[in-house]
Amino acid sequence: MDSCISMKSYRGKILLYIVLQFIKAGLLLLPPYCYLLFLNEVITKKRLGWLWGVVALYVAVFAVKALVSVLIKQVYNRIFPAMTLEAKNRVLEKYNELDVEVLARYTAGELKERLHKDTENVVLYWEKRLELWVAAISVPVMTGILFYLNWILAAVSFLLLPLSFYITRTIKSKSNLQHERRREILGKYNDFMIHNMFFWKEVKSNCQEERQQQQFEGLWKELGDAFLKSHIFWFLNRTFLAFKDVFLTKMGLYLLGGILVIQEMATVPALLAFMEYYGDFVNRLLQISDIYMQRGEQEASLKRLKEIMELQSPERPYGLEHFESVEFCNIGFSYGAGRKNILRDCNLKIERGETVAIKGESGCGKSTLIKLTAGCLLPDSGEILWNGLPMDRIRRQDIYAKAGFLMQESVLFNLTIRENLLFGKADAGEEELRAACVRANIMDFIRSLEQGFETVIGENGIKLSGGQKQRLLIARLFLQDTELIVFDEATSALDYRNESEILNLLLQEETAGKTFIMVTHRETSVARCSRVIAWKEISGEETVSAEGDRVSAGCPG
Q1: Which of 87, 225, 403, 499 could form an S-S bond across to 491 if both were Cys, CB 3.0 to 4.6 Å?
Q2: How sure is the predictor about 490, in pLDDT bands with cuts at 50, 70 and 90?
């Protein structure tokens, strides 16, 4: 828990919150006492002079209780929302610290649930834990009061408590299983929705709407079924306790109390006060039962967050002050055991200042090579060297500070154009933004928009055309101002004129000394590069580029 929330910073406020809760719990004991005084002194003994005193005490208790409730809410608002924000920030920071290959163990839906639901459950765990302490201390106090008023009634009312808690525990174990099932399905559902928000154009263009609808309905049915079952167990527990403690027990106590009054072993005021206190006592038990029922889900969230917070990226002691070279040494890669090799014995070196074009047929592994370069994928065999150092020993942030990657799957967010650009350089000024957009040939388009840089572009830039998205991504890359620039079909949606202008900017004198790698099909792009690497399908024979580079023992088509 401490890895998500620093409890030390909340100790004083939590102590105040507990004290106020105990004061409120103590005040709740006074109204039934006022009721007992009224029945004993005013009604039974006809002491009318006590009336104003009892009324004044009741009003004072009510006023103080209202004031304490307001203070509790104020202290609550200073503790638990801040805890929730801190927990979410800590988990998000952890996500940012972890390597791509570590995060790849989880689906997007699962990561979202840990950031969203699990952090809230952890804070709720602490909130309910504090309430449990107050309730657990209040119950023995109320037990003492009940025995003081009438030990026979108290003893009878407690006979069914062991059975009650045994049934509650059984229901809880069943409920926890349903909560876990519901959460697992919710992760799949979130993953499905995230995928479809990003790729709805592909869904429509491939006429997959009906299949998508079937998947949605299937997941929603599973989610609804799990939700229903988890709540059925919750209602079973509540219904059982309400039926036993409120209906059967109360009726039995009134019957037994009436007999005791007739036998002069109890008084009517004591019986009525007993039933008031017993109602509060049952409410406390229901509160404890609810907390206990929810505990399983919250503890599961604690374990999941602990697992995330304890994840470690591989130790990487080396930095990267400048880019000098990237080299592939006998690299092999396939997408899963037993599947066809994408790369085999790949050997390639690119040095500072080169402009390299990698061309080849679709599906031959060019994009896989770029993802390996970026660390998005890990090779099955061989080694990738940056400046002669093993990539798995170099800090990832140093690589990304020196190398800018524009992938086919590069993402734009449902934010403004300005906010999307600032992902390239968080402190970029207005002039820097404009200069980058001019270089990417998108400034005229931005000026044409009514809100300019403040225009919200939709999820993954859905409000933009393919070419506009690519130019915006290129402008963001220009803001990064990296020493190595890698394009993976980054200009495929641009016409020849726009592509030519952007390549001219990349390759002109102001970018001298920088390194440029382009994966492309276009001969116009290839012609602008000083070195061309032909990428071919794996055939079991060594493939040689036009410049004589030994590339691989084949790259698949």
Answers
A1: 499
A2: low
